[in-house]
Amino acid sequence: MGGRAVTVSNDSELEEQIAGWRAYVERRPEIHGGDADELEDHLRSRITELTDAGLQEDEAFLIAVKRMGTLDDVSREFAREHSERLWKQLVLPAEPDAPTVARSRRELPVALFCAVLAALAVKAPALFGVGLGGFYARNLGLFVLAPLAGYFVWQRRVSPRVVAVLTGLFVLGAVFANVYPLDDDSQSVVLTALHLPLALWLVVGVAYVGGEWLSAQRRMDFIRFTGEWAIYYVLLALGGGVLTGITVNVFSAIGVNTDDFVGSWLVPCGAAGAVVVAAWLVEAKQSVIENMAPVLTRVFTPLFAVALLAFLVAFVVSGHGIDVDRDVLILFDVLLVLVLGLLLYAISARDPLARAGLFDRVQLGLVISALLIDALVLVAITGRITEFGFTPNKTAALGENLVLLANLAWSAWLFFGFVRNRAPFARLERWQTGYVLVYAAWAWVVVLVFPPIFGFR
């Protein structure tokens, strides 16, 4: 099965179907690049046999997928989804072998161990007399994301070379977050606190994909994981809030004050440990239930589109410019990031072979609205910089909005081509997964370069 290259046809539709099947298979954590190559070779052999027997290529593809033995359950589910053109994702696990079962039983203990490490890392500085403020602002991302990366290193059996790269990037972040002489109330500390976690989260992504960061499909897998992780973390936070409230009130009923314990231990340790636990929950349910992020995307995309259009209308009618201060800039950046998040998770859940529909046009309207708002914010920022000069905050805001503007502009163009049936949907997906590298580069620039450029202000 493995040694020869099998060709079936140059038909673009068939190649897109095979690419979609391969992307589906590669989402399985136990399938690696070499396994996927071998399975694809097997699939192409079966398609060739069936087309030689007189079947049409689309029929041969579906039958060949159903007959795949190694991933029979997964392939059969894929064939059902493909033929019904479902937008959702549902992955049912193949029957695991004994080593896989044994390893899966260790996943929860390993995840809990990494969660405890994250909790201890957050508390350790305070135990040695380090107070809150600048130190925690600069290093919190390091404390909680390093154990998460370690969890994925174990789970994905990452190679020593990739482990060395991951370690080097975390050390780089730790050194430059602490080596610069920054006052706790400086703008550079705030920028580091905001951008270092983003940079390190993308480093975690390298561990999540097992070092296959150059694969667009694997980057999309990490984007899906990010959305699912965020949902689970919020759910854990809500549950933790209920637990905290009950704990405080139950103990106060018997005259025991737990405020110090809750504030000093329960909340910070629980919040840190939940970072890893949420990741474990995503992985544990990955092969059992439907992803939630795409469902929420379907709900909130029209709502955000209406809200942004209403803002643009109000802006034109009122004639009032945008107030440019740090909180407002952060608010607009969060808004634009949410729009891109909705776009990303809709892309991740969409059948790339399906024709453009109403929801795609709603998304195009959302992207265009966000693009116009980004342009308005850039005009306001440029005016403030022209009047008062460059500061770390304004320069970071300018750069971030330019980065977002470029993404939104090209996304709008690709979406327009898709809804007009002039461009394949795959181009938009490749653009979004490739642009993740731009976000990573910008985050590292802010952390490493901005403090010395602006005199450590």
Characteristics of this structure?
mainly alpha; disordered N terminus
Can you walk me through this structure?
The chain is mainly alpha-helical. It has 3 domains: 12-84; 99-285, no CATH class; 293-453, no CATH class. It has helices at 12-26, 33-52, 57-67, 72-84, 98-127, 134-156, 160-179, 187-208, 216-252, 259-285, 293-318, 326-349, 358-388, 392-419, 425-448, 450-453. Helix 9 crosses helix 12. The chain is globular, with a radius of gyration of 24 Å. The termini are far apart. 34% of the residues are buried. The model is unreliable at 1-10 and 79-97 (pLDDT under 50).
Estimate the global geometry from the Cα principal axes.
globular
The domain tally reads 3
Q: Helical percent range?
A: over 70%
| Distance, first to last CA | 62 Å
Question: What do the pLDDT scores average to?
Answer: 79
Radius of gyration: 24 Å
Beta-strand proportion: under 5%
**How many H/I helical runs?**
16
**Biggest β-sheet strands, sense, barrel:** none
Secondary-structure element series: HHHHHHHHHHHHHHHH
Structural class: mainly alpha
Q: How many β strands by DSSP? A: 0
Enumerate the spans where pLDDT stays under 50 for 5 or more consecutive residues. Answer: 1-10, 79-97
Q: Outline of this structure?
A:
This protein is an all-alpha fold. α9 (216-252) packs across α15.
Q: What's the structural blueprint in terms of helices and strands?
A:
Blueprint: H1 12-26, H2 33-52, H3 57-67, H4 72-84, H5 98-127, H6 134-156, H7 160-179, H8 187-208, H9 216-252, H10 259-285, H11 293-318, H12 326-349, H13 358-388, H14 392-419, H15 425-448, H16 450-453
Helix pairs in contact: 1-2, 1-3, 2-3, 3-4, 5-6, 5-10, 6-7, 6-8, 6-10, 7-8, 8-15, 9-10, 9-12, 9-15, 11-12, 11-13, 12-13, 12-14, 13-14, 14-15
